[in-house]
Amino acid sequence: MTSPLDPQVGMYSHVNGHPADVLDRLTVSELCKAWPVYRDASEWKNFRSIFCQDAFVWTTWSKRQTIDSFIKVSKEGKSRGDFIMHRECGTSVDLNPQTRRAVGKMKATITQRFRIPGDAARGLEPVVFDVDCDCRFHFFCLQENDDLGGSPQWKVRYVKLIYDKDKVVPVDGKTAPTFSKDVLARCPEGYKYLGAAQAMLGHDVDAFLPTIQGKEHGAAHRSWLDMYEKMRQWLDGEDDVDLSSPVDGVKGAANGNGRAAPVNGKGNGAVHASVNGNGSGGSGGLRVDSFHGDT
């Protein structure tokens, strides 16, 4: 559930205003929209051009990475068959003209395709499904001087998301896995299905990223409020903005140091699945009970 609490304390230039402010916000909006366009198409040179030299990004499957490292592991993931796409659903920008800082807020849906191999000996066909995750990208931007002496350029320094909700989508309209409660408990409400499915591929999923949903109806999640405080610090011109996620002590979900608790001492590996949990092929599809071993 979402909270009725307004998480943003102050207001910045976000609509209308001086034509120069409108142009700055439009430029930052272009940076935001470049993520789904360029990354999904593997246009790596265009993708890299929107970031500062010392930029960092956080995602569920990659955790915290420098931008160059993120591009590297993204290429490696695509080479292994990772199929992640993004749908931009609307973008707005908060701008502080005095500090030359901005935060781009892009609503998006992450949609990733997964495949659980079949078992010919048991007459089981492969199961192909998507996980769709509604989220909000936050692009922490600043204006940098051009190295060639040209006009100052807007660039992205940090990217971090707030995850709202997710779901499993059967590709054929009827067949999808059912993840066990223990598997889903390793990630918070907001990206628990996405996290479970990405762990199935061997990714060490970050279990402490911001999510909008508190434990009680109407409650504001701590990580959600913390992200807005970081955005305020950035917009107000602070140089040392700590974007590490606050870690809640969730029993059985993580080990208290920001890393997902290992499943079998390795923390990555294959999926252990049964059909309906009992080996029979009814309408319930595959049940994912645990992850184990190296793929």
List the main descriptive attributes of the protein structure presented here.
alpha+beta; 6 helices; 23% helix; disordered C terminus; 295 residues
Structure description:
The chain has 295 residues and is α+β, with helices and mostly antiparallel strands. Helices cover 23% and strands 32% of the residues. It contains six helices and nine strands. The protein has helices spanning 19-40, 44-48, 67-80, 181-184, 192-200, 222-235, and strands spanning 51-59, 63-66, 83-96, 101-116, 127-144, 153-170, 178-179, 270-275, 286-292. The two termini are 36 Å apart. Mean pLDDT is 83; it is low at 249-285 and 290-295.
Unreliable spans are: 249-285, 290-295
* Main beta-sheet strand count, sense and barrel state: 6 strands, mixed
pLDDT averaged residue by residue: 83
Strand order of the largest sheet: 2-1-6-5-4-3
* CA gyration radius, whole angstroms: 20 Å
Strand content: 25-35%
Give the SSE string: HHEEHEEEEEHHHEE
How many individual β-strands? 9
What form results from the Cα inertia axes? Answer: globular
Helical segment tally?
6
From the N-terminal CA to the C-terminal CA, the straight-line distance is 36 Å
Which range best describes the helical content: under 10%, 10-25%, 25-40%, 40-55%, 55-70% or over 70%?
10-25%
Specify the structural class.
Answer: alpha+beta
